[in-house]
Amino acid sequence: MQLWSDRRLRLSLTGLGAQCLLALLAVGAFSVNTGNNLLYLVFSLMLGLFLVSGVLSRRALQGLRIVSLEEGNLFARVRGGLRLRLQDRGREHGRGRIRGLELHLTLEDGQVEPGFLGRTTSGGETLVVLQARAGHRGWTKAHRLELRTRFPFGLVEKARFIDLDQDLLILPHPRTPPAPPAGWRGEGHRTVTQEGTSSPEGARPWRAGDPPGRVHWKRTAQRSQLWVRTFHEERPQGLHLRLDLAAWAPGRPFERELERLSGAVLQARLQKREVSLELQGALETREVRGHAPCWRALALAQAEGSGDPPAPENLR
Question: What tens digit of pLDDT does each residue of 292-315 get?
Answer without folding.
Answer: 999 999 999 998 877 555 554 333
